[in-house]
Amino acid sequence: MEKLLAIHKKLLDFVDNNVNKFPDKPGLKNACCLLLFAKSTKTYRAIEHLCNKGIGYGEDAIILSRSLLENLINLAYIANPKQEEEQKHRAELFSNWLLIDWNRFQKGLKECTSTKTQLRQILQEIDPTTDNYKNAEKLINDEIQRLKNNNHQTTKRSWSGLGLKWMADEVGLLDFYYDVVYWHCSQIVHSHPGGIDSYIKRLPNGNINICDMPSPNSIENALTVSLGCYFKVVTLINNVFSFKLDDKLKEIDTEAANIVKDL
User: Fold this and answer.
1) CA 19 to CA 155: how far, in whole Å?
2) How do the domains of the chain map onto residue ranges?
3) Is the C-alpha dihedral spanning 261, 178, 27, 12 positive or negative?
4) Around Cβ 262, how many Cβ atoms within 10 Å?
5) pLDDT for 176-215, tens place per residue?
6) What's the pLDDT tens digit per position in 214-259?
7) How many Cβ atoms from other residues are within 10 Å of residue 97's Cβ?
8) What is the CA radius of gyration of the chain?
9) How far is 77 from 192, CA to CA, in rounded Å?
10) What pLDDT, in 10s, does the model give residues 111-156?
């Protein structure tokens, strides 16, 4: 456990010392990547805090680890295509999704709610009659049609036009990270019977013990999952911004692989 905690912190210290110089005007694609990187880094810090010294809140760290995996899949979907034009196109889809999603949210609220009135006042640009909204809607709809034409299973509830599973498939993260890791984390995220052992245990005398205090439970899993996900996030950011940290990242990856192998 000590080695796992150490490599977890080593990666974070490496990022703080080396992945910190970004352009003032990064452009849309890079700005989207920066957003997902910053979000992932803050989540990674929170996971480390929850797993403090191997005694903590491992189940909650697993919940955040799933969020980190979602960040990774979204980041990879934007940054992975070799064609720069496709990267820019996906960044446009990502950035325009706010208009579509907020409008859908407003439409779902009951007409009489004060919240809906307040939203209309604050977010007037989401009016579906404006050019900004119409352009965003066309962009998303055209993408969904393009994906359908290529025999993809589409959804109107995602900025990419694909569900998270199919985005993971597109970027090579389906077989292990989505099918195994995401499934495992989801049992804790949701009220799933599979996560029951993390919170209550039956004692030999038949009584039930409530497990709601800091413990070593799930700490190792949370550290392992988050380490793997965040390392991939950092690798993507290294490529997007050409930091040329490949050799140093390879050293950390080798060290981490040896530690995880011995668990």
Assistant:
1) 35
2) 1-80+215-263, 84-170
3) negative
4) 8
5) 999 999 999 999 999 888 777 788 888 899 899 998 999 9
6) 999 899 999 999 999 999 999 999 999 999 999 999 999 999 999 9
7) 16
8) 21
9) 29
10) 656 666 666 665 665 677 788 889 999 999 999 999 999 999 999 9
Task: Fill in the amino acid letter for 100.
Answer: I
Do 28 and 91 form a contact (C-beta atoms < 8 A)?
yes
Question: What is the three-state SS of the chain?
Answer: CHHHHHHHHHHHHHHHHHCCCCCCCCHHHHHHHHHHHHHHHHHHHHHHHHCHHHCECHHHHHHHHHHHHHHHHHHHHHHCCCCHHHHHHHHHHHHHHHHHHHHHHHHHCCCCCHHHHHHHHHCHHHCCCCHHHHHHHHHHHHHHHHHHHCCCCECCCCCCCECHHHHHHHCCCHHHHHHHHHHHHHHHHCCCHHHHHHCEEECCCCCEEECCCCECCCHHHHHHHHHHHHHHHHHHHHHHHCCCCHHHHHHHHHHHHHHHHCC
Residue 102 identity: W
State the Cα–Cα distance between residues 228 and 136, nearest whole angstrom. 34
Token pair in block for residue 78: 């934007």
The structure tokens listed for 192 are 């799933």
Distance CA 194, CA 213 (A): 20
Report pTM: 0.91
User: Residue 199 is encoded by which pair of tokens?
Assistant: 């919170």
